[in-house]
Task: structure prediction
Amino acid sequence: MLILFTKKIRIAIILSFSLSLLVSCPKKNEQAADIKFVQPEIKKQNTESFVEVQFKQLSTIIRFSASVEREIFKTIRTNLSPTMTQFEVLSTILDQNLGIKKNFGSVDCKLYKIKRSLKKIDFYKQCLSPESLIATIDFNQNKATIHFYTKEWAYAVGASVALAGKDRICDIQFSQSKLNKLSCEQTQLMLDQTTDIEELRLSEFIFDQSATDQVHVTGGFFKNLTEHRKLKLNIPFDGKIKIIEKELKVQDDFAEQKPVIIEAVKNKIQDIIKTEENNGEKNNNQENNQENSTENIENNQQGGQPTTTPETGR
Result:
């Protein structure tokens, strides 16, 4: 009886264990069925490199600077409106490089190229061989320095400025695509050269968004390299525009004298003219001698007698 009882206990234990397995397995399967694989969302990365983004921002800054430059010139003189300013030319080159359809005005050359590096852009004019460097932009973070090589900008600043003017240097401060400050040295522009050479020379050319006077310009008007009128321009953020022009008194004895550079240029031109006249006379004498020699040869061949030349009389 005891043996039979123990067998029944063993069978009960085995059955209970198997039932526990049967009950627990479906729960595990149900939990496994609830688990789903969720693919993490992959954000689209900007394919543009940092250099490209910075290049686009700088192009926007130069475009706005071109508008500021033209408006300042128009404020100084309503008729002071060059076909294209220096900043407008650079802006057009940059926009064309970005694929923006933009045309040049009446300039001496419409074929340009740029060379880009991480922190510098070089601008080249390609209408003549070899190509010539007209400007460079050095930039770092939120600052940039633009160097205009004045001798290559005759169509924008005038022949007299391109011949004797200094290079124009401009500093720019910006945040992303917003211009904060523009400051230029040696801003020069030829006004007239019909009778006298008249130029506008600006020692200060400043646009500052945070300043009380957003535009501050100082300089003067020059005639035959002599300053005859001072200029000061202030444009506040809110208020009236102030333009002050002060006529300068020039001593009569100095006014009657020719500036040294102009006199030297005139003397140089007269020397060139005299040289050309002398060369012309020499060429005429050589031609006359050749004609006389030809006549003598022909006479000798026809008559067999020597003839005298006008120079020797022999």
Observations:
- Residues 65 and 74 are 14 Å apart (CA to CA).
